[in-house]
Design goal:
By secondary structure, the chain is mostly helical. The chain has seven helices and no strands.
């Protein structure tokens, strides 16, 4: 469900506005959904770890420059109209997701078989939460304030959960 323009939680990204019809696109998040799927599949098939390690992060604009979607140009234009603070917060969120995928990919090499399911569960829960935050931001077309993502705190939380 998309928030309405009268929602007090929404704030204008900046004084510019996208062209009519320009909107951010959640298609970008399919990349992270793919990583999540590969992560979850490692509990059933350890060979999926190689696929997860081969997964590479791509930035929002790069994703749409490579895309054949009809909305690719509009999605890029909409992203360029974000205010610097909104773009920075979104990039921080993406960095957190990228770091989480890289960390769990490396960690799963050294995890005893009996602990794989727990590691995957913790990492998948965190990744789902981050994807949800990114989807909310995109669905609000960047007009919602994202809290600053403390990547180091997220990493510490993941490390703490995995150590227990």
């Amino acid at each position: 469900m998309s928030a309405s323009a009268t929602d007090p939680a929404l704030t204008a990204a900046d004084s510019s506005s996208p062209e009519p019809g320009d909107a951010l696109s959640t298609d970008y998040l399919n990349r992270y959904s793919e990583a999540l799927m590969l992560l979850e599949m490692t509990t059933c098939d350890r060979s999926m770890l190689a696929e997860l390690k081969a997964w590479r992060a791509v930035g929002y604009l790069e994703h749409f420059r490579q895309s054949r979607l009809r909305c690719a140009e509009e999605a890029q234009r909409a992203y360029r109209t974000l205010g610097p603070a909104q773009a920075e917060r979104f990039e921080e969120l993406c960095t957190a997701m990228n770091r989480l995928v890289a960390t769990v990919s490396a960690l799963l090499d050294d995890v005893p078989e009996q602990d794989v399911a727990l590691v995957v569960e913790v990492a998948a829960r965190a990744l789902r939460r981050l994807i949800g935050q990114a989807a909310t931001f995109i669905n609000a077309n960047g007009r919602i304030e994202l809290a600053r993502v403390d990547v180091d705190a997220l990493q510490a939380e993941i490390d703490r959960l995995l150590a227990s």
